[in-house]
Amino acid sequence: MNQQTAQIDAHSAPNHERSPGQPVNHNEDANHALSIRVRDLNLWYGNNQALKNINIDIYQKNVTALIGPSGCGKSTFLRCLNRMNDLIRSVRVQGLVEMDGRDVNDAKMDEVALRRRVGMVFQKPNPFPKSIYENIAYAPRMHDLVSRKAEQDELVEQALRDAGLWNEVKDKLQEPGTSLSGGQQQRLCIARAIAVKPDVILMDEPTSALDPISTATIEDLMDKLKKQFTIITVTHNMQQAARVADYTAFFHLGEMIEYNDTRMMFSNPHTKKAEDYITGRYG
Amino acid sequence: MSQSFDEITAQLKRRHRKSARLKWMSMGALILAATFLVVFIGDMLVKGLPAFQQAQIQVEVSYTEQSMQIPPAAVSDEARSLVSRGYLRLIPGRMRDNPELMGTTRMEWVLADSEVDQYLKGHYTRLSESHKRAVDRLKEAGRAELKFNTRFFTSGDSKMPELAGIASAAVGTVLTLIVTMAVCFPIGVMTAVYLEEFAPDNRLTQIIEININNLAAVPSILFGLLGLAIYINFFGVPRSTPLVGGLTLALMTLPVIIIATRTALRSVPDTIRQAAFGVGCSRWQVVRDHVLPLSLPGIMTGSIIGLAQAMGETAPLIIIGMVAFIPDVSTSFSNAATVMPAQIFTWAGEPERAFTEKTAGGILVLLAVLISLNACAVWMRKKFERRW
Fold first, then answer.
1. Range list of H helices, chain B
2. B209 and B307, same domain (yes or no)
């Protein structure tokens, strides 16, 4: 503890009285309505603790980037937010993940309901092996968001427009989603996620399998989408975090070391470890 | 100190010789296997193709009151021993069905006795010399020839080779396999889906898994004993029927389908499951809408292979009484029936020479059906195979 305090003293002092989970500095341009509140979150794979006492407040309609070296727990943390970790048998989770006043780990919380409000985009584009149209229409139909065919067509078009894909695919909606290029597939997956109108979109290294141009397209898209959705993204690419994120959290060995306004994080990090990572001393 | 190319080449010679030797040995094995296959199929064709032809002779048939009572009287003394006795027995029935025949005499092509058939095909025959001469005379006059044997495909078994056909066995096979598939396809697929997608990974499921794998290797005759003990003796299912045969073969096919389905489910990439969970599918929706459609070609292929295996099975059916003499084509699940391999087995044991070609002919039919089933499986896999 002392060491930590010493580190903090050595760097810039916080600009406000913080409770655990709040960022060191607030992004003055950002929205400060709370979306997800995480308190004392611990997670074990068998006997191996992968997340240690995570406290973080995620704000609505922002892009929050999670950065850190491989194996630091950032993807694991992301998957706690829509309980995708439930699918792994040996996982044990403890602590509070609160959304809309409800604990998502509560026994009464249906993970299907949670995942409707917290969508996800994965590292490798994984469209369903169905037509482009079906990729989008499947989930809204399943959740009874549309009743008529016209409504469904409209929703598909809207989702594809929001994902910036409409002009490229409007003439080939019945072709398989897997026939698109990698970057288009990833935007199709984003369209699929936003089609069910979630509050939060989790992105697990969404551009790591893409070329630089597709990456730039996705980054622009994230910037547009944050007007409607809360976006939490995991990235290995610090420039990307600096470009797209309003807030950045730095994870290391299962702990969240620093949570800060992105500009402050990259210009004047509050902790020594974050500074070392950002300046490329490890990771 | 490095070696020169010449030194290395000298060392390599032995290695090259060894690999050439292995190549020739494996080529030899392939050629040997291919030879066996060619000899087997060739032998079956040579022996079996004559079964698709049957001798008929043209004789005068007189439909009189007398032939109604004593059918052999319908043909002349000379022709009597050349005409199939089985055919003669059918005359009164035909006269009853067609009253206008009464009192007429016609020249008709009638089924010849199997000995005549064998003589015309150039096989060994017990025909006496005078009968042989009579057949020769008929042949010269164009009144004895080999015609396509439709009876082989339309009638059931008979003790007279010229009347015996594979139809009752074929229908029995179809009925039996319908029962087998109806029972083991849904049960097998659902079991595999549960084990693969829903079951927790604990000691119990591991034991179940090991037992299913072992079940696939149990000698098939044991399934016959199980069928006899459980279905016939305990549940009282009528013996020799497609119902009990199908249920017994289902026991045998079940592990094959479970294993094939699990393999197919496992080959669906996890990213598809994650994508489906990610948009808020329940576990059942993930399986029904995404995993099952993708694994269906694999499941179908495995099931057809299992079906083909069940189709060629004889041993368990011996125990439950399906190796039986079934002269009539039955279309009921609860009447006594036989299946194609059992029919072949029965014919192989008949003393008459003419049954040899029936046996081979039956094998040809069975092989043709099996090959088309397997071709169907391959076609289905190719057609529905999708990339993701």
1. 5-48, 65-69, 77-80, 85-89, 91-97, 114-120, 129-140, 151-154, 167-193, 203-215, 220-227, 242-266, 270-278, 283-285, 292-311, 315-319, 340-348, 354-384
2. yes
